[in-house]
Amino acid sequence: MSEQVVTRFAPSPTGYLHIGGARTALFNWLYARGRGGKFLLRVEDTDIARSTPEATAAIIEGMAWLGLDHDGEIVSQASRADRHRAVALELLDRGAAYKCFATQEEIEAFRESARAEKRSTLYQSPWRDADPVNHPDMPYVIRLKTPLEGTSVIADQVQGNVKIRNDQLDDMVLLRSDGTPVYMLAVVVDDHDMGVTHVIRGDDHLNNAARQMGIYTAMGWDVPVWAHIPLIHGPDGKKLSKRHGALGVEEYRDMGYPAAGMRNYLARLGWSHGDDEFFTDAQAQEWFGFDGMGKSPARFDFKKLANICGQHIAATEDAALLHELEAFLAVTEAAPLSEAKKSLMAEAIPSLKDRAKTFPELLDKAQFILAERPIEPDEKAAKSLDPVSIGILGELTPQLQSASWNRPELEGALNTFAEAREMKFGQLAAPLRAALAGRSATPSVFDMMLVLGREESIARIQDAAKGPA
């Protein structure tokens, strides 16, 4: 039986969940879920000065909104410092690491000299092979002994075999002089102890893999499968930043993009399955793999995001969509729907969800439900309520009072009314839209009338037929 796949997402809690981090989490989640594996969450909170509980909460909240559920408890890297320190000392005992007593001033003096002589500034400690009897009584760091010759090969599932000459790698510090472990050591120890089999992360970590492999090898641990994915760039091809727009996942949530659409779009950033653009979570989990991964940075495209999100809104079951809409109203601190409005919204959802790309767009189409009498038409709709149109609405009211309230009957009654006055239906629809919704762009007149019901529809039309107050 093959080994169970274990992936992880390991953000630093120094801010919000960045869209690039969200995609890394998504790729790890898809890879594990599609193979019956585990997806773990580790918070790399070793930077005590910059890590905050608020940032940790924001990351967890962002992942929850995206629907990226993790297995087991969240691991705090900072709480495992004793374990990291123990591994550094074990490497020292094994002769795979050494105590380095060089001061920062000595290291900087070496580098200045090397720069002046145009030599490599890679620091080679004179303490590497020093006899312990000659060790002074002063602070020291513990460094890993990196092979001086040969080549390290990163067998990467995305980038291919990446070769790095060992003489280009320094003897990495494992433990600082105050006894605190460095991030590079902590990552390896945590990944090993958590049983991580596949490390899927941004390709800005590619060089780290060569240095981290030295720890795995020295400890006799299995090296995980590496997969370094391309970063996300803005539409202009430059690294994604604030100037391109929203960066944090919660910003996209607050703008009203559905989580399913966000997952679909992020999955397509740097990965593809043939020409498929729109797909479900189940399809993404089944299809996702390294063979569909590109090596070049992916470009974030807001139009494509909106298009995919619109397709997901249209494809979502009505009850689930109403639930998401209520959640959106809650996070944006908008007024919740009353039970009466919720009932009307449930009835209207089928006619609202086509061509709405975000929840605000969907709510905009639902304005006729959210509005209260008397309906105040906006500037454009008010132009449809000229004296002639107002008179026509007054004539229409008795016809509607006697009509059966179903679509065929209403269509027949309104079309007959328009023909009798030698009007095109559009000439009748415009003042009706203004009366029913106060807008010129609305769902179908018949959809609105059926959702609002006979009493409310006729009351709104009668209000409009009275003319401006």
From TrEMBL:
Residues annotated for ATP binding in this entry: K242
Locations listed in the record: Cytoplasm
EC class name: ligase
GO cellular component term of the entry, any: cytosol
Main localisation: cytoplasm
Record GO biological process: glutamyl-tRNA aminoacylation
Domain called Aminoacyl-tRNA synthetase class I anticodon-binding: residue spans: 329-464
Motif 'KMSKS' region: where in chain: 239-243
Pfam families, A to Z: Anticodon_2, tRNA-synt_1c
EC number: 6.1.1.17
Domain of life: Bacteria
Catalytic activity: tRNA(Glu) + L-glutamate + ATP = L-glutamyl-tRNA(Glu) + AMP + diphosphate
Coiled-coil portions: none
Keywords: Aminoacyl-tRNA synthetase, ATP-binding, Cytoplasm, Ligase, Nucleotide-binding, Protein biosynthesis
Glutamyl/glutaminyl-tRNA synthetase class Ib catalytic domain ranges (all copies): 4-306
Signal peptide location: none
CDD domains recorded: GluRS_core (cd00808)
Motif annotated as 'HIGH' region, chain positions: 11-21
Molecular function GO labels: ATP binding; glutamate-tRNA ligase activity; tRNA binding; zinc ion binding
Subunit structure: Monomer.
Family recorded in the similarity comment: Belongs to the class-I aminoacyl-tRNA synthetase family. Glutamate--tRNA ligase type 1 subfamily.
HAMAP family reported in the protein's UniProt record: Glu_tRNA_synth_type1 (MF_00022)
Functional note: Catalyzes the attachment of glutamate to tRNA(Glu) in a two-step reaction: glutamate is first activated by ATP to form Glu-AMP and then transferred to the acceptor end of tRNA(Glu).
Name by which UniProt lists this protein: Glutamate--tRNA ligase
Organism name: Pseudooceanicola algae
